[in-house]
Predict the 3D structure of the following.
Amino acid sequence: MRIDVLTLFPNMFSGPFAESIIKRAMDRNLITIMIHNLRDWGSGKHRVVDDYPFGGGTGMVMKPESLFEATESIKAESAYPSAPVILLTPQGRVFNQGIAAELTALDQLILICGHYEGIDERVREHLITDEISIGDYVLTGGELAAMVVIDAVVRLLPGVLGSEESAKDDSHTRSLLEYPQYTRPQTYRGWETPQVLLSGNHAQIAKWRREQSILRTLRRRPELLEKADLSPEEKELTSYS
Ligand code: 6GU
């Protein structure tokens, strides 16, 4: 997979992508991430990329020219002309695990980091194919949101996670929150590890974990349970807890 990011703040991306799982995926050529500075397509000596809004008002608006030309130059060099052009904006559809899985299937993503003051509407109408928000709060720009989307998508790519950190049991993949985990020491400050986890009885352990996931989801995120695939006995568990 190849991901191209268009941003006014390319340096923001150097930290997160220089660490851990994303770096390993890049080093192993499982993913190519190209960060492009939008200002390289700015106009005039000052590389201008924004201007005052027609009709007045506060803040600046991102001009269409640099966004179109940057995207077109990325597309011209790409083997995937149908790659989506995704704007990160609080007005987009709210990102979740399902959208991450959907994007993982694509060969290339072009991500445009918007700024809250706004982007010329013609970019939305004629260049952007999808708009994504990472939640109902306002960030100073789309950069952190782009990093969140990239992280969630890249970890789902085949081979990125080792088998011991597999994504298939993730919270949210099955619409249930994770069960509680324990590690050594078995007793810490008098607080015990649940006996069932030490029993060696794998069927009992799996049953306990499944119940704990369901109960935790019921208490913390009951709305998720509607999408979870529960057996009749499990539904029972949620009705009298
Ligand atoms: Cl994608 N951008 C901005 N500026 N704020 C956000 C967001 C995106 N998602 C949630 N808040």
